[in-house]
Design brief:
Length: 115
């Protein structure tokens, strides 16, 4: 089960927090696009990892971790990601929120970080 946790370095780094409510339409297309975005992000310079969960009612969170704000901006402007975001607004989400935060401290098990 540990593969569900992102392996991040010691802080500081950045987190992009994407919270959404799915409409429930085109589940197969959504899942394929979500998998593709994770594959693309993993190849993006500055990407550190991601964690994601979705409830049965369609409420979900995806946290992606990045080395810098510049890496986040580059990901935002990646062409296939931009197209997927537009499709999400149009077809998949009834509501979403996106937040960017700087991680100053991180700790836990089995690998512990502290600042």
């Amino acid at each position: 089960m540990s593969e569900r946790f992102a392996r991040t370095p010691a802080p500081p780094y950045y987190a992009v927090i994407f919270v959404s409510q799915r409409k429930g339409e085109d589940a197969e297309g959504y899942e394929a696009a979500a998998q593709r975005m994770l594959e693309l992000a993993a190849r993006q310079p500055g990407f550190l990892g991601a964690e994601s969960a979705r409830e049965a009612d369609g409420f979900g969170m995806t946290l992606s971790y990045w080395e810098s704000e510049a890496a986040i901006a580059a990901w935002k402007h990646q062409a296939e990601h931009a197209a997927a975001r537009a499709r999400g607004r149009r077809d998949w989400y009834s509501r979403f929120e996106l937040r960017v935060a700087r991680v100053e401290r991180a700790y836990g098990t089995p690998m512990e970080h502290s600042a």
